[in-house]
Amino acid sequence: MSNPSLLILPGDGIGPEVMAQVRRIITWYGDKRGLAFDVSEDLVGGAAYDKHGVPLADETMAKAQEADAVLLGAVGGPAYDDLDFSVKPERGLLRLRKEMDLFSNLRPAQCFDALADFSSLKKDIVAGLDIMIVRELTSGVYFGEPRGIFEEGNERVGINTQRYTESEIERAARSAFELAMRRGKKVCSMEKANVMESGILWREVATRVGKEYPEVELSHMYADNGAMQLVRAPKQFDVILTDNLFGDILSDCAAMLTGSLGMLPSASLGAPMANGRPKALYEPVHGSAPDITGQGKANPIACILSFAMALRYSFDQGSEADRLETAVEQVLADGVRTADLLGEEGVTPVSTSEMGDAILAALDASL
Ligand code: NAD
Ligand code: IPM
Ligand code: MN
Question: What EC class is this (predicted)?
Fold first, then answer.
């Protein structure tokens, strides 16, 4: 049998910097654990625009459809701010999500013990935190029609449409309940049913799907209250189910509970392929971080933990995913810190590649 295929799309800004560390870890798994992947690399975002005039070439899209999993760094950056909307780097990522039909975006927020002091919240509020945000990723206001900027009388109007079908809500909800069954058996669904019809339907469908999972406790919360509760008492949550836009915002908010946006991985999963595994793209939650690009300061952990999620969700290698997550935990416990994680006096930050060195050493020590 051939090796599983991995398509790597480093993208822009710190994307290639953090992905370089992931590539070392992929090589380590091939050398030391006999887990070889057929790795290919391609362009996305501004890097693809520079070469092809579009943020995702059709050939790259086709490769992504064929791959067993896609790993993406980040897209975007100030150099591309003035591009026409249709070719902005972010459109490349959105095309991947839409055409691969990656409807379920898993964004775990876990606070490693060693970092409980780094959150902007008090230590006892975040210590031991382990929540999972399930963000619907292929619909809602990100994709709804009509959309655009139109002339209306003597001024312009910008329009986006929040739109959800029952089946779109249902499949996202089902993935949240399935996850909850393997975790703390609680789902909190967040919408704004008080002001949005799509929210009313969301609540109704989530409730209906929930009846199939009698062991899971389902609660509902307005998303604005949810944002407040996430910073007030985040440990009340197990799985949070929410739509595309609320999920985008709530997951950045959850990032700070873990100490840094540089820590948060994600998995975007679709329907099962012929081999039974879901179509999947893995990427850090953070962006291209133009303010620190090219300085060796980027924290590669979010991208590395995204590869751990790939091991778990695409390659059935849960214990190897545990090994990688434990190596990261060990390195943090040893006090190794990139600049985004500084807080303690007298600690000198390590560079992106030194963080990679430390994680590889911890992996070696795990053998
Ligand atoms: P960002 O996530 O790029 O940066 C926000 C802040 O967090 C910055 O101060 C940055 O230095 C810091 N940061 C982020 N990741 C870090 C890491 N790994 N290590 C250390 N510090 C880190 O968000 P932004 O500044 O709002 O957006 C910049 C660009 O990235 C925009 O073009 C945006 O559209 C794009 N973006 C892309 C993605 C993606 O590719 N999935 C996600 C978010 C934003
Ligand atoms: C994210 C990002 C993306 C989003 C952008 C870059 C399209 O913010 O993955 O969180 O809004 O979904
Ligand atoms: Mn975001």
Answer: oxidoreductase
